[in-house]
Amino acid sequence: MKKNHVIKKKIKTSSIANTLERLNQFQTKQPQKFKQVFDYYQKGQNELNHGLVHQAKDSFEAALRIYREYIPAQNYLAVIHGLLNNYLEALKIVKQVIRLDDKNVFAYIQGAIFLYRLDRKKEAEAYSQRALHSFHEREGHDSYTDYDLLQKLVEMLSVLREDETLSKLYHERKSQLSPMSLYRSALSLSNEGHYDEARVAFQTIYDHTPIKEQVRLLDRSLKLFVEVGIPVPLLFAEEEEGFKLTMAVASLFDGEETKKQASFNYIKNNESVEMKELIKRLLKTNKLEDWVKKSLLSILADFGEAMEPITVLLDGEIQLISLQPVELTLNENLGEVFLKGKVKASEGSYLDAIDLFTKVKSEAPTYLPVYLQLANTHLKIKEFEKAKTALDEAKNIAPLASVFLGYSKYYFDIGDMTSAMEHVSQFDTRELENKEDIFEAVLLKIKITTELTDKTRAVDVLKEEKEKFELVLDGWKEFEMDLNNLISKEKPKVEAVEPVNIRQVAVTEPLDLLEIFERYTKDKLISIVKFYKIRGYSKLNKKDLISLIIKEVYENKLWKTSLTQKELSLYNSLAEKGTSLSEEEVVKHSATDANLFFIELRDNTDFNDMKSDHGSLLLKGALIATLNDEKEWQLQLVR
């Protein structure tokens, strides 16, 4: 008879049973050796906890030389190789552990992380699933081990960026998670778009000391981003970029001045398609200050975003702003020409500087700084129309804060204080990138405010600017002291006088020009000589300098060159109607009665209604008073 052979299904048992049997035999037969293994293992753990990585590595290896299948030492030796970025060696040890224990949760967790670091993401995901499965199989035997492995699972899912799985685990186990695991879970919830739940998770660990500040900042940022309607960056515990971008954007809304400036620098240094789109979203929100949006527009211009108009919410209105392509740098040759032009301007060789700047402009027509340099230089020699032309061209390229600063300087120099204030108010001084521009803008605001209002308001303006720059701008303290000194000086008051006729002025005893200039310092006299480009003064003493000025500026009528074409035409028009006084008498009396001339001129702006002799006298008197360094007369006249 043939025997019936029954094929029995082989029941697969876990490899850990055989491993534990061998360990028990080793412990029984060689207890002293086992004690050495355990001592080395504990020593390695203690060293690792104190950051002594290489010493810990030696201790774990010593344990394994005695008994190579001691799994705890193998697991931590793999951890150390991971810390040393030896991921292949770490993975090799993990696989040895899995051969000894095919359900070792710790090994699968570490293996998943090492594979992810090696950019073997599919294998990493497989190890991750095995880790989760093995955890569920073994859970319940040791509550301490369960808690420890659960936190390690959260870390693994966070590293692998398995946000959906980690969010699900959070919902199932949130009461069992440590503060750091709750933090990692909150990041995943945010990445999955569950912002309210993410904020709840953050708020449960508000007082967790090591990450308290970061948690609170992220919570506020999530709230802000949702309210404003801008995308929340992806946030990962092992990567800083998402946090940096989040903090940079959040600081634009409510950060201190130092943080806002740091945000602009971060955005400038991280140009990308995503960054450009984010900026465009920010430009449409009503929660950002206008000056911040203008600074972002400037960054977009630097990025070369000029293909189509940009939608911006400014002054409460949606506007379409076109950004022309702007040259950010010059080639080496043009750069040298531009620098040489700046040097010439600083030396007072304004015509040479203009020639050099014009050359740069012709070869780099969208290089904004050259237009601003041209405008500044034309202002130095009172070529006001040319200065304004340069500013108009600059504005067409990019309506930046530096351009409006140029306009304000132009209007200040021609005496139109209202327009000067209007233009300096069109930008926030924080939009300016150069320290020199910031100082110049603040000084200009103080001067204009003093002209239009009083010292009290000027002090208020200074306080406002101080809040912006005191902590972020080098040299602010010294600059503030200078401004306080400027404000504290009493502005000369023009005494009101009873109206008089021209004959009364004529009989007033004149103040001799020699006596006027005797009051000037020699440096001030030299500045007048330089202004009119008079040569041969270098070896003259003060008395001879005064004689030279009186002769050239007054007697030879060089003072007319200080007038604009508009002013000169007005002077000639009135002078043609005749006057009962000679020009010499006008010169003397205007110096004597400058206040009187100015008051009447200010109150009679319609020159056509004046008597010819009276109008001519007043006009020439005010203009000539300018030569006595009374700049305000000319400013008020043109106004």
From TrEMBL:
InterPro entries: CellSynth/LPSAsmb/PSIAsmb (IPR051012), TPR-like_helical_dom_sf (IPR011990), TPR_rpt (IPR019734)
One Pfam family per UniProt: TPR_19
Source organism, top-level taxon: Bacteria
Stretches of the chain forming a coiled coil according to its record: none
Keyword vocabulary terms for this entry: Repeat, TPR repeat
Keyword Ribonucleoprotein: no
Name of the molecule in the record: Rho termination factor N-terminal domain-containing protein
Organism: Anaerobacillus alkalilacustris
